[in-house]
Target: diguanylate cyclase
Amino acid sequence: MTEGPHAADLQRASPRLQQELRETLQRFRLGGPFYVLLWGLAGTASGLWTQARDTFLLLGLAFVLVNLLRFLVKGLPDDASERAVRQRLNWIWAVLLGNCALWAGAVSWLLLTTPNESARTVAAISSYAFATAFAHNFPMRLREAFIALGLLYLPTLGALIVNGSRFELVAVSCLYLLYVSLALYRSHAEYRQRLDLEDELRRQRDLFEQQSWRDGLTGIANRRRFSTVLTHRCRQARAEGTPLVMLLLDLDHFKAINDRYGHGIGDDCLIMFAQRLQAAFPDAGQALVARLGGEEFGVLVRQPLDVVMRRADAFRAAWSAVPLQLSGVGLNSSVSIGAVAFDPARHQTGEALYRAADVGLYRAKAAGRDVVVCADQPD
Ligand SMILES: Nc1nc2c(ncn2[C@@H]2O[C@H](COP(=O)(O)OP(=O)(O)OP(=O)(O)O)[C@@H](O)[C@H]2O)c(=O)[nH]1
Model:
């Protein structure tokens, strides 16, 4: 029962989630030193460096430790599982919010302890600057970013009110908080829009890639894909000494089918042929079935020649045995097949293997069609 969510957790994280982790991490590592630096400035300006050295140093040390924590979070996990990526993101946000809470506590203490005007100014400007930077840099998670904004901003604003600061100052601070909140909203919306756009681009790219190797009519691999795989498999067979056989299949008298029944039925015939050929030579890393153009198909199989010849002949016999029923029309069709086994001494390129298979096909047609002929077979 728990298998469903568990299995989903172990799935590979989506590109969108992976990107969120990359971007969050990149920005996460940048901010830390500024907290240490500005805390030092505020403490020195306030005189707390001398008046309450221990507390001041303790808080400074806490900023340094949080800063170090930022560099302990690693990038994309090796398995890139959804669960691992989410855990890493949660950890980053926990450190970020911890850092903001620390700033909130340190600044509240400073503002309530010291009457020094310049120290208060440094603390207030630092808080507002951190809040602004946060709104622009961490729009990935809106809820968490708002909590961070509150932690960075509100203690300073509260201290201004409690300390009886001038009305104009409090009003300007409130207006600026409004601006920062709106900026966070806008950055979040823009961030999501950008991710949506990138998702769409990825989808279009995948679709284009798929379409560029699929045959539009039958949906199986096209000539382009076949040529790429042919080159690759020839190289592999040469390097590993494994068997490789190419079949070239051409429907017999296909023009007559078109002429007699029309192109629509001709198309249906090609689609059915592709489906049956694919079923006869299922992929599973062994075979590649492609439409090379018109009524010509190619198959690559990593098996010995005698085995492939038997399979090809069984397919040929089954295809011509029973009339096809296409849109209520019954028609007879047969196929001629040329076969050739890869020989590293004779086939230097995929093109050479293709030409040899074509010789087999030519002989099959010349022999009266509806037959499988191996190119190396004597006439
Ligand atoms: N319906 C349909 N016909 C096509 C398609 N592509 C090519 N053809 C037709 O396939 C026929 C091929 O004819 P030919 O090359 O003369 O070969 P054939 O009639 O099969 O004769 P043999 O190969 O010698 O047995 C032509 O009529 C082409 O118009 C297609 O996508 N759909």
